[in-house]
């Protein structure tokens, strides 16, 4: 099974030179730690910064400089600041090349749910609905099953949706899957995780790609 | 020069009354109008509708107004990190409208720019789309969303001059820039209020025409929500 860091590491291989990338809270944030050498990407945070750098040292901390997860950050040379309206213009206007975000559930139709559990938890959608409605290239980073062992890759989402028919790629602790023709397609399995095991914990329709292989790190 | 300067937060908030709708700048606790919020607590103004990306934390930001039950309705995109708020929401004590962050920003921008409504793809096929007009453009579906209507905007900038020209710092710009000008009366507090002529016109983020009142905040705590350090 992949660790959260390995999920991020696998996603980082999808980064291409000169990509502008929006990373969501949680596992997606870790992707920034694994940018392949020789590739230049710029990270956008929807609260108003392009060119996000590493977390600050104690001396560098600035209350006026945070990411969308409200964590303190630094900027890299070439960074820029802007307001929320321009930030979402970048997102809706498809100027951002890749969006990586977490999910509670994903359906075989590419629907995603990640903002609300009725009666229990309401945190809000933040920028996720804008991101999934507009981004051409969305990767979901999540665990394959929830805390009680139930599949998060479903025929239909049971939770309120964040977006419809938008997810194309999912990287979980068990493998990499794509969404094609209303079904999940298993492309890669995590090391030492058999195809049969992935099938057993995927509730939605799943086919195995003819080129399915074990992930390499 | 048309002066927008007022001498105190009290004077700046003159006219805010029970039941009004306020736009409140900031993202999390970054760039929130600390002095205006503290004054609203003092004034005991109630039944407020607050339009703000977040609802503060339990003991800071808009959380201070929530504690005193001064807010009737919150319009936000993300309200995690505030337990008292979550309690009031799940028990039905407070009305909540959650909207996508980009839609929130654009609803403010539209109001400021004199555009009554617009179409956006965010929320199509979700709860957010309920009872909203959907229209197709170039094969893709969009929701009709309306410009926000508000009585006051409470804005925080870094520096400003007496003419109301503003400069923001870092990611504290967030909703402050877009909200400034989106309400009938736009009140700005700054860390440093300078005489006209001291700010470089090339570096102004918001021209004074969008500002009705400006004052220098007495003190800023600038609390950090999630201090995260590199090793």
From TrEMBL, chain A:
This protein's record includes keyword Ubl conjugation: no
Keywords: Transferase
EC number(s) stated in the UniProt entry for this protein: 2.8.3.5
GO molecular function, one term: succinyl-CoA:3-oxo-acid CoA-transferase activity
Keyword check for Phosphoprotein: no
Alphabetized InterPro entries for the sequence: 3-oxoacid_CoA-transf_B, CoA_trans_fam_I, CoA_transf_AS, NagB/RpiA_transferase-like
Pfam families: CoA_trans
Listed NCBIfam families: pcaJ_scoB_fam (TIGR02428)
Family: Belongs to the 3-oxoacid CoA-transferase subunit B family.
Protein name (Swiss-Prot/TrEMBL): 3-oxoacid CoA-transferase subunit B
Organism: Wenyingzhuangia heitensis
TrEMBL record, chain B:
Keyword Transferase among record annotations: yes
EC number: 2.8.3.5
Signal sequence bounds: none
The protein's name: 3-oxoacid CoA-transferase subunit A
Family designation: Belongs to the 3-oxoacid CoA-transferase subunit A family.
InterPro entries hit by this protein: 3-oxoacid_CoA-transf_A (IPR012792), CoA_trans_fam_I (IPR004165), CoA_transf_BS (IPR004163), NagB/RpiA_transferase-like (IPR037171)
Matches recorded under PROSITE patterns: COA_TRANSF_1
Keywords: Transferase
The keyword Transferase is assigned to this record: yes
Alphabetized Gene3D superfamilies for the sequence: Glutaconate Coenzyme A-transferase
Enzyme class name: transferase
The organism's taxonomic lineage, starting at the top: Bacteria, Pseudomonadati, Bacteroidota, Flavobacteriia, Flavobacteriales
GO function term, MF aspect, one: succinyl-CoA:3-oxo-acid CoA-transferase activity
């Amino acid at each position: 099974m992949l660790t959260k860091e390995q999920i991020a590491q696998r996603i980082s291989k999808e980064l291409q030179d000169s990509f502008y990338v929006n990373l969501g809270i949680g596992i997606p944030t870790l992707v920034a730690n694994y940018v392949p050498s020789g590739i230049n990407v710029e990270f956008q945070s929807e609260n108003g910064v392009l060119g996000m750098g590493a977390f600050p040292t104690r001396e560098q901390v600035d209350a006026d400089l945070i990411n969308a997860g409200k964590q303190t950050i630094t900027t890299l040379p070439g960074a820029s600041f802007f307001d929320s309206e321009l930030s979402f213009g970048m997102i809706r206007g498809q100027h951002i090349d890749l969006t990586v975000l977490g999910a509670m559930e994903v359906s075989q139709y590419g629907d995603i749910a990640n903002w609300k559990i009725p009666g229990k938890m309401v945190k809000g959608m933040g920028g996720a609905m804008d991101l999934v409605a507009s981004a051409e290239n969305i990767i979901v980073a999540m665990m394959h099953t929830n805390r009680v062992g139930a599949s998060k890759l479903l025929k239909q989402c049971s939770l309120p949706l964040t977006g419809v028919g938008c997810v194309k790629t999912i990287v979980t602790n068990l493998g990499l899957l794509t969404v094609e023709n209303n079904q999940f397609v298993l492309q890669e399995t995590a090391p030492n995780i058999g195809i049969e095991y992935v099938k057993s914990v995927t509730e939605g329709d799943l086919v195995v790609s003819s080129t399915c292989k074990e992930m390499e790190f | 020069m048309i002066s927008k300067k007022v001498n105190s937060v009290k004077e700046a908030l003159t006219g805010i009354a029970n039941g009004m709708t306020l736009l409140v700048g900031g993202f999390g606790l970054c760039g929130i109008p600390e002095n205006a919020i503290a004054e609203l607590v003092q004034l005991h103004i109630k039944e407020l509708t607050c339009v703000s990306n977040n609802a503060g934390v339990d003991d800071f930001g808009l959380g201070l107004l929530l504690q005193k039950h001064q807010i009737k309705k919150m319009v936000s995109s993300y309200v995690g990190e505030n337990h008292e708020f979550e309690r009031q929401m799940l028990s039905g004590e407070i009305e909540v409208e959650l909207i996508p962050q980009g839609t929130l920003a654009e609803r403010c921008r539209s109001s400021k720019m004199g555009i009554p409504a617009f179409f956006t793809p965010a929320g199509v096929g979700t709860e957010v789309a309920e009872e909203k007009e959907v229209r197709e453009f170039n094969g893709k579906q969009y929701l009709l969303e309306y410009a926000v209507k508000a009585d006051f905007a409470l804005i925080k900038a870094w520096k400003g001059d007496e003419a109301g020209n503003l400069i923001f710092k870092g990611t504290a710009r967030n909703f402050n820039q877009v909200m400034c000008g989106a309400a009938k009366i736009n009140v700005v507090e700054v860390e440093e209020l300078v005489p006209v002529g001291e700010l470089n016109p090339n570096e102004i983020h918001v021209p004074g025409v969008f500002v009705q009142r400006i004052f220098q905040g007495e003190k800023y705590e600038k609390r950090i929500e999630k201090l995260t350090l590199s090793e």
